[in-house]
Amino acid sequence: MLHTKDFQVWGYLQVGSNFPEYQLYLVRLRIVFLVGLLTVIIVLIIMSWWLAGRAMQPIRQSYQLLQQFTADAAHELRTPLAAIRATVESNLMIPKITDIEARETLKIIGRQNLRLSNLVADLLMLCRMDRQLSYTNSTAIILETVSIPNLIQDIAEDFTSLAMKSQIQLLTKILVSEPLIINGNYDQLYRMISNLVANAIQYTPAKGQVKLILARHVKYALLKIEDTGIGIPSDDLNKVFERFYRVKSDRARHTGGSGLGLSIAQAIAHAHQGKIQVESKLGKGTTFTISLPVNTGI
């Protein structure tokens, strides 16, 4: 309705629109919102699945490692137990055994029992190392001050007889004049280094060499155990510290190894805020490098 200045009605104005076009616009708008909502939901589902997978991956890996560790430990324990059982059953089937046969049976049982004892001791050591690494306060293992040069001399003296028996030359080189003191546990550090030295002697052919070289780099003591042994294949270098892993199973089983020595050594190094690195060339030798933080307050 239109009015004049005097508010008199002088006409009417009627405006119309095309209702089908407006309805089509609403349909298109509804489709856009629906497609957008579905897209957002799909993206959220995919992102949630991806994030959940990333979050569960460490748990899945830990569970797989636990399963593998349990299976390997059961296998290692089963082997000597089966040998003991077979030995006992075979002797029980004999109506009468001589003193010599009884003594040989006891020797076999004794060897397998020693293997079991060593395996259980290694497993207990790893459990203790795991507990120490779970502590947020590293002082849980700081029990005493250890002189690394003196420790190396002790290990060299203890392994001289084994090296001579294997016709291997065991050498030590101390490239530092000042005392290198480390806060830690003497027995654990001894176990770490002796494991590496024993492996070096064990897998080095006769007339070979094993060297213990001690140096210092800034705030770290560097100890290298070098050998002229058979070496480690490049594909196995990243796996040698895994528990129960053997480069050659037949060789390790023949020497009585359980595949825990290097795992224990690495756990001890980590517990002392250090690390172990390995370099090797097949047929030429292997070098393990241990780096440990030095007590600068001494």
Shape type: elongated
- What's the helix count? 6
- Count of strand segments: 9
Portion in beta strands? 15-25%
CATH superfamily of the largest domain, by name, is Histidine kinase-like ATPase, C-terminal domain
How are strands sequenced across the largest beta sheet?
4-6-7-9-8
Main sheet characteristics: 5 strands, mixed
Regions with little confidence, pLDDT below 50 for 5+ residues: 136-140, 249-254
Polypeptide structure, described:
The protein is an alpha+beta fold. The chain has 2 domains: 1-134, Signal transduction histidine kinase, dimerisation/phosphotransfer (DHp) domain (Helix Hairpins), CATH 1.10.287.130; 139-293, Histidine kinase-like ATPase, C-terminal domain (Heat Shock Protein 90). 54% of the residues lie in helices and 17% in strands. It is built from 6 helices and 9 strands, in the order ββααβαββαββααββ. The chain has helices at residues 19-92, 99-134, 148-165, 186-202, 249-254, 261-271, and strands at residues 2-3, 9-11, 144-147, 169-174, 181-184, 209-217, 220-227, 275-281, 285-293. It has a 5-stranded mixed β-sheet with strand order 4-6-7-9-8, with helices on one face. β6 (209-217) and β7 form a beta hairpin. α1 runs antiparallel to α2 and α3 packs parallel to α4 (186-202). It starts with a strand and ends in a 5-residue tail after the last strand.
